[in-house]
Amino acid sequence: MPNTLTIERITAENVDRVRELYEDFRAKATTDYEYGNPPVEFLLFIEDIQNKTLEGVAAFDGSVAAGILIYTLDKYGVIEINVIHPAEGQDETAVRFAILKELVARLKERQDWNVISYPMLGRQETFIRDIALLNFKFVGQSIVRFDFLSPIALRVFRNSVIPELGDYKLSIWNENYREEAIQLINNSFKNTKNTYFDPRFATYEGAAEVVEMIVSGQYGEFLPEHCRLLLLEGNLEGLCLAVKLTDSVVNVPLVAVKKNIRNKGMGKLLLKSVVGSFIRLIAENKISLTEINATADTDNYPAVRMYRAIGFKEVYFYAHAYLKRLTCPHTD
User: Fold this and answer.
1) Does 275 lie in the same domain as 154?
2) CA-based nearest residue to 205, from 220, 222, 189, 183
3) Are 20 and 32 in contact (CB under 8 A)?
4) Of 127, 69, 72, whose CA–CA distance to 102 is shortest?
5) CB-CB contact of 315 with 143 (8 Å)
6) Which of 96, 103, 98 lies closest to 25 in space, CA to CA?
7) Per residue in 246-303, pLDDT tens?
8) How many helices (H) and strands (E) does the chain have?
9) What CATH number corresponds to the domain at position 275?
10) At what angle do helices 266-283 and 301-310 cross, to 10 degrees?
11) Residue 182 within any structural domain of the chain
């Protein structure tokens, strides 16, 4: 029962007590929690706990692990909850609530964080009503997917109308435009809901880190030849980036255009060029892909409409929960 649970921080001393539960989570990550790939093996998990690359909290029912919460803390003060995983036979909601409530309570005494970010993927969506009792707020997120094997998606792609380039030019990724890309991303996202749970977008320095993580392959294999830059008289006006998540799946982490050319089809032009570059290689049997996906806010209708116009389809919705520290400098 929840009132018998004891909550402990996962450390090098007690990590072996959660081995069985971690292995259970790892086995279910791709099916129950919408992970693209399984989490690290347990021995690597131990190393991550020891060097604090990952941190965690566990609930114990007597000597048995009843649930685990795994998170990271970055230099911008974002606590990213990877998962809250209860053991089989436990009251899932009660265990999740007990662990998260204890984490929030412990964090009240700390000054090294700004926001808790919790993408509630998979079976965690049943926890939305209860987590609101801890004062979490929510941003709706939509996973959109272009299915390279779908005749309907390909037909929509072929029939989609995009504006003429005119004086604009398209280019693949070029490092010479990195600083302009960072500024463009910062300007495009600093006033959006993304900053509620990821304050990096609120500053130039944070946007620079996002770009570095994409280009250095931390979100997946960076594909510079499939990225697109929109140029006008040598100046960057828009971009669409692409990374390879698995042998069969590509992701578009960012699409952005300058404010003065928004709602004029330029984002769609960039996206269609990126998707088309993969379609051509698939047709030539040079690569084997099944999908390209992206994430958009559910209430950002222009973005959702852009993806639909190219042939993407909304395949999954989830709530991205966030809780800000009261003195957090980035407020909504």
Assistant:
1) yes
2) 183
3) no
4) 69
5) yes
6) 96
7) 999 999 999 999 999 998 999 999 999 999 999 999 999 999 999 999 999 998 999 9
8) 10, 15
9) 3.40.630.30
10) 30
11) yes
CB atoms inside a 10 Å sphere around CB 83: 23
User: In the numeric block, which tokens belong to residue 288?
Assistant: 């084997």
- Cβ–Cβ contacts within 10 Å for residue 189, how many? 20
- Whether the CA torsion 165, 277, 214, 171 is positive or negative: it is negative
3-state secondary structure of 187: helix
Residue among 62, 52, 57, 63 at smallest CA distance from 8 = 57
Q: Do 118 and 49 share a structural domain?
A: yes
- Output phi, psi for 127, to 5 deg: -95, 0
AA identity, residue 311:
G
**Residue that the structure tokens 């050319």 belong to:** 261
DSSP of 66-114, one letter per residue? Answer: EEEEEEEE-TT-EEEEEEEEEPTTS-HHHHHHHHHHHHHHHHTT--S-S
Q: Give the CA radius of gyration of the chain.
A: 21
DSSP label of 218 = B
3-class secondary structure, 215: helix
Domain that holds residue 26: 2-135
The residue ranges of DSSP E strands in 197-312, in sequence order, are 221-222, 228-232, 235-240, 243-244, 249-251, 255-257, 291-297
CB 18 within 8 A of CB 10: yes
Please give the share of the chain, as a percent, with pLDDT higher than 90: 91
The pLDDT value recorded for residue 331 is: 47
